[in-house]
Amino acid sequence: MAFTLVHTADWQIGKVFGRFEAEKAAVLRHARLEAATRIADLARSNGAGHVLVAGDVFDSETLPRTLVLQALQALAAQSGITWHLLPGNHDPARPGGVWDTVAVAGVPTNVRLHLRPEPAEIAPGIYVLPAPLAAKATSNDPTAWMATAPTPAHATRIGLAHGSVQGFGDEGDAAVYVDPAITRRAGLAYLALGDWHGTKRIAERIWYSGTPEPDGFGQSDPGNALVVRLDGTNVDVTSHAIAKFTWAERRIDISRDHAASAIETEVNALGARSFTHLLLLRLEGFLTLAEADASEARFDQLRARLFDLTLDRRGLSLQASASDVESIADPALRSVATRLQTMAESPGGEGPIALLALKRLMALSGSGSADQKP
Amino acid sequence: MKIKAIRLSEVGRFSEPVAIEDLSGGLDVLAGPNELGKSTLLAGVKAALFDKHNSKKKEIEALRPYGGGAPLVEVDIESGGRLWRLRKRFLSQPMVELTPLAGGPSFRGPEAEIEFGRILGTKEDDGRFAMLWLSQKDSIASFLPDKVDGGIQSIEDALAQEITSVAEGNAVSSVQREVRRQLGELLSSHATRRPIGEYRAAQAAHEVKRQAMAGVRTRHAAVTGLLDRLVVTRSDYERLASPELTAGRQARREAARSRLQDAKDAAARRDAAAVSLRAAESSLTQRRAAHEAFEASRREAQRLDGAIAESEAQLSELAGPLVEADEAVRATVAQIRILRESGEALESERKGAAAAETRTQAARRIADLTASWRAASEARAQAETARTALNATKVTQSLVATAGAHSREIAVLRAQLAASAPRIGVRYRPGAEGAMSIGGKALEDGGWRLITEPTPIEIAGIGQLRIEPGTSSDCDEIRADLEAREAALEDLLQQAGVGDLAALEAALAERREIERTLSDATSKLAVLATHGLERLQAELAREQGKLAGTPDEDALTRPLAEVDAELAQIRKAHAKRVEQLDEERQVVARLRESIARLSARRDGDRKRREDIGAGLARIEDLDAYATALARQAEDAESEANAVRRTLTAWSEKAPDAQGLQALEAEQAVAEADIANADRKLQELQLDIANIEGQLETARNEDIEARLAEASAELAAAAAEEKRFADEAAALTLLDRELSAIETSTRDRYLRPVIARLQPYLDVLLPDVVPVLAGGFGLDRIVRNEREEALSRLSDGTQEQLAVLVRLAFARLFSDVGRSVPVVLDDALVYSDDARIARMFSVLEAASTHHQVIVFTCRETAFRGMRARQLSLAPWHRTS
Q1: Backbone phi, then psi, for B372, in 5-degree steps?
Q2: Cβ A243 vs Cβ A233: under 8 Å
Q3: Which residue from A25, A101, A335 is facing B699, i.e. has the nearest CB?
Q4: Using the 8-state DSSP alphabet, how is residue A223 labeled?
Q5: Contacts of residue B283, Cβ cutoff 8 Å, sequence gap at least 6
Q6: Calpha distance A299→A311 (Å, rounded)
Q7: If contacts are CB pairs under 8 Å, which of residues 8-27 in chain A contact chain B?
Q8: Which of B409, B572, B658, B709 is least enclosed, having the fewest CB within 10 Å?
Q9: B152 — contact with chain A (CB < 8 Å)?
C-alpha cells in the first residue's frame, strides 16, 4: 500500500534575528511562521495528508503564548493536513516547556504531538515511531527504543527523530546523536530526521529535510521540504523548495575590477526577487583609501536592492597608496602622510589607527573624501 | 624700502599739518618730549603702508582729529633705487595716490594699492609687510616681532614667501588647528585626556548596554534554570506521590501500629499476672505463718515449763550465799568504826607534839638573831672609830705625792749644785792625819769634799784656808729653786704634823690601814644586817614574841614522829577495811541482782506460759489441728506456682520498657514519614506552581527576543564606542605627527632668525642664547646654561631683547633682498646708560643693512648716537 507524507523539520518558530535591525528581524521571524502554509500546499499538491515535523518546531521553550497560539492557528487552518510534531533540542518535551504552553493553548484536532516514545498509528498500518527529546542534550540515542517498538506485523514503521547522525556533517559536536543503523534494526521504511538545517540524504531511507526557511548564511541547501512516497519496500524522496528568503554568501576579491560588477550583475538578474535575498559579501584583496571610498558607494547602491547586505571586511586590506599620499599638495603634510602610511603598513596594533589618521589627514588637507567629523 | 619723508594732515593730535623731511634711510632719530606726537606719526605711517585707503576699522577711526576731518598721510619712500610718494586720505573722500618722484604717471585707487605692493615685491594680499616697528607697550607686553593685520600670520606668510624652503609651515598649522579642534570634541584637555561629548556619550551608552545585557543574560539563565528546576521538582513530586511509595509509607505505619498494640496487650497480661502472683504469694505466706505459729506455740509452752523450773532451782541456790555476804559486811563495818576512833585519838595527840616542835625551832632562831645583832653592833662601832681616825689625819695621798715630788726635785737641785761646786781631795802626809778640819770636824785622809758655799778649812798649824765656790747665774737660780722647794716641803711636813718625809709616808700607811678597817667593818655590817641593824633588832623582837605565845614544852607526852608513825598505821588499816567493805557489798549486790533477774525471768515465763496455755486450751486436738494447717499451706503454694508460670509466659511475650519505646518510636517514624511526605508534596506543589508562574511571566517577556535584542544593541554600542575610540586615537596620532613636523618646520624657520639675532646679542648681552617659540616670539633665554623665563628678566632687558628680535627679522629680510625699515617708538625707556650705549652700536650696525627710525623722548641720551637727527616741521601743503 502506497503512502505519501511530507517530511520537514527545524521550523524554529519564534527565532529572533537579533543582529538585524528590528523591522527586518520581525519579517524574518514571521516568515518562519508562514512556511507552514507553503508546506501544507506542497503536501496537498502531492496527495500527502500527513506532515512529519522532525523536531525543533519552536525555537525555544519560553516563547510567548501568543506566538504559540499563532503557530497552532496556522496549523489548524490547514484542513486535510495532519501535523505530527516532535520535540527537538530547541523545544524539548519537559515540564514547563513550550509543549506545556501548547497543551494549555489547546492542541488542534489536526495536530498530533509525539511527546513520548511510543508507536502511533497515523493511518491504517502506518506507524510513526517518534523519538522525542526531553532535554537539550542527551547521551542516549533517542531512537534506540524503536528496535523493540511493538507494532502489528506488516505495519509500515516510520521513524521520526531529531539529532545528529554520527560520522556525517560538519556542524561540530552534536547535543544528540542518532545511530542510522536503527533503520535496519527497527525495520523502518523511512527515518525522518531533523536538526541539520540543510537538506541531506544520509541513505535511501534516511533523510534530513533541513529547515523550510533558512536562518543563516553558510547552510548547505536549506529551504526545502521532502515529499516521501512509501510503496511496499520502495521509497521515493523528492526535495521541494519552500523558502521565502534566500541567504546567499559570496566571496569576492574587491581589488579586481570585475568582481563587484559580477555581484551587481547577479543581483540585477534577480529582479524583484532580490528583495527576499540576504547577501553576505566576504571582501578580500587590497584597496587604496580612495578606492575604498568609491567601493563603499557601490555597496550602498547594492544594499538598497537587497533585503539585507552584510559586508565582511576581515579579508580586506586597506592601504594608503602612493597616489593617496601624492594627492596631498602641502609637502609638510605629505611627509606626515608618508609617515602614517609607513605606520599603517607596519605590523602591529597601530596600523588601523594610522590608516584612519591618514584618511583624516587626507580629508583635512582637501585631498580626500573622508568625513570631516567622526 | 626706505622711508624718506613723512607728512601728516588732520591726523590725531596734530591740529596743523606736520612733516619730517630728509630721512637718511640709515639711522634716523626723532628726539622730542612727550606729547610731541611721535606715536601719532607712527600710526599715520602704519595706516599708509598697511591699510587700504577705504578702510574704516577702528585704528583708522582713531586717526581722525578731535575736531573732525579726513586724515591725510604722505610718505616718500625709496625702493629699488627709485623714489615714490604714497599719499592716502582716509574716512572722508578717501583716496590713494602713488607718484614716482623721478617723473612718470601716478597711480590712483586700487591700481595704486596694487602698484605699491608690486614696488615692495610682494602680492597685494600678503605684501603689506613693509615695516617692522616696536612701541614701548609692545616691548613689554609681547615679543611678537610685529602686529600687522593678521598678526603673526602675516609674518609667517611673508617669511614663507621670502624663504621658499620653509614655506610649508602654514598648511601644517592650519590642519593641526582643525585636528585639535576635532580632538577637543572627543577628548578633554586634561593631562590625562578623557572622553567627552559624543565619545563620552557612546562610552556611557556602551556601559548601559553592557549592564542591560548582563541583566538579560542573568534573566535568561534564571529562566533556563527555572525549566531545569521544574523538571527536578516535578520529578520529585511524582516520585514522592507515586502509589508505590505512598502504599509503602502507609503499610509501614500500619505494621508499626499493630506491633505496638500487640506489645501493649502482652504487657497488660503480664502486669495482671504479676498482681495475681503477688496475691497468691501473700496467701501462701499467711498459711505457712499460721502453721508455723501453731507449732511454735506448742514448742514454746514446753520450753517455758523447763525454764521456769530451772529459774526456781537457781533462786534456791543463791539464798545461802546472800545471808553470808550480809554478815561479812556487818563485821567489816564494826572494824572500820574501831579504827576510825583510834585515829581520832592519835590526831589529837599529834597536835600537841607539833606545837612543841614549833617552839623549839623559834628558840633556835632567836639565838641566831641575837648573835648576828651583837656582831653587827660591834662592826658598826669599829666603823665609827675608823671614820673618826680618818677624819683626824691630815695626811693624804696627794699631799704625800707632792712632798715626794719636792723631795725628788730638791735632790736633783742639790746634785746640780754639787756638780758645779769645787771638790777638794784630802791627802795627808803621814803624820798629819786630821790636821785639816771644817767646822771643827777633821777631814778624812783620802776623802773628797764638795765646796758649795764659802767654807773655811782650818789647817792646824797653818791657818785657815777659805774656799768659796764660784758664782754664776745658773747656780743662783738652782739655789733659789732649791730653797723654794725646801720651804714648800717644810710647809707640807708641818701641815702633816710630821718631821720628815719618812714620817709623812708612815702617816700615809697608817691612814690606809684605818681605811681597810673601815671597809671590813662596813662589809661585815652589810652581811649581818642587810637591812640595817634596826630591822635586825626588830626581827629579833618578833621572834621573841612568837615564842612567848607557844605552850609549855613540858606538856608533850611523846615525840611527834612517834605519834605520826602510829597514826599512819591506823590510817592504813582503816583504808584496807574500807576497801574490803566495798568488795563485800559488791558481792551482796551481785547476788541480789541475780536473784532479781531470775525472779523476773521466771515471772515472765510463767506469764507467757499462762497465755499460750490459754490459747492451746481452746483446741481440742492439737495434732489434728497442726495437720490441717500444713495442708492449707501446701494448697496455697500450688496456686502460687500456677500464677507464676502464667506471668513467665506473658513476660516473655511483652517487651521491656526499652522495647516498647522502640516500637513507639518506630510507629512515630512511620507517622512522621507520612506527614513529611504530605508536607513535602504540598511544598513541591507550591514550588511547581511558583515556577510555572514565573515561566509564564518569562514567556510573556519573550526572553529569547530580549536576549537577541540586547546582544545586538550591545554589539552596536560597542562598535560605536570603538569607532569614537579609533577616531580619537587616529586624531591623537595625527596631532602627534603634525606636532613633530611643525616643530621640525619651526626650527627651520627660526634658524635664520636666530643666526641674525645672535651677533646683536653678542654685543648687548654676550652670555645670552635666545630661544624662539612658535609665532616667532622670543620664548625664553639661556644664560650660563640655565633657562630663564622672560617674565623673570628686568624690564630693560625685556625691551632690549624685543628690539633685537625685530632687528634680526629686518636683517633677515634685508639679506633676502628686501630692506624693511624698523621703527622704534620709545622702545628703549628702561635701559641704563651702559646698555643704551651698546644698543647704539647695535642700531648703528643694523642701519647699515636697513633703515632704523627711532622716536624717543630721551633727547640727551640719544644725542650721542651717530644718526641723523630729525625734527618735526610744519607741512606746507602744495596741493
Answers
A1: -60, -45
A2: no
A3: A101
A4: S
A5: B636, B639, B640
A6: 9
A7: 14, 16-20, 22, 25
A8: B658
A9: no
